[in-house]
Amino acid sequence: MKLAYVDSCIWIISLEGMQDHRASVRAELSTLARDGWEFCTSDAVRLEVLVRPTRLGDAALCNLYNALLDKNRQLPVPSTIFRDALAVAGKDGLKAMDALHCVIAAHSGCELFVTTDSRFSGLKTVPSMVIRL
Q1: Yes or no: domain 2-130 corresponds to CATH 3.30.365.10
Q2: Which residues pair with 112 in a beta bridge?
Q3: Would the N or C end of the chain have less CB density within 10 A of its end CB?
Q4: pLDDT tens digits for range 74-84
Q5: Where are the domains of the chain?
């Protein structure tokens, strides 16, 4: 099974994005699933997607996110994450949280990092797939 780390922005768009963006993201995820990719998540993704609905007190949306993420493979956070993320941030030119995602994906053997964020194009740490909206 091929592992694909799915970035927070993908899940946010798939649940809360504009209808045409939701359709594009969902279609790409369906194609990846048909091609044998297993979707992966982490506590870092869960944190990012839940901050806004938690602040708003939107328990229904929090439940939707948790149910969605529970269907994915939960990846462990490596004990060296902060040291490794610093190196990745420098090498790939990423912000701190983005570097954390890349380290988690790389440590778990993910072969693909799925996002809509063009800053992830050409990652050195893990190959990326940027879904254009």
Answers
A1: no
A2: 4
A3: N
A4: 999 999 999 99
A5: 2-130
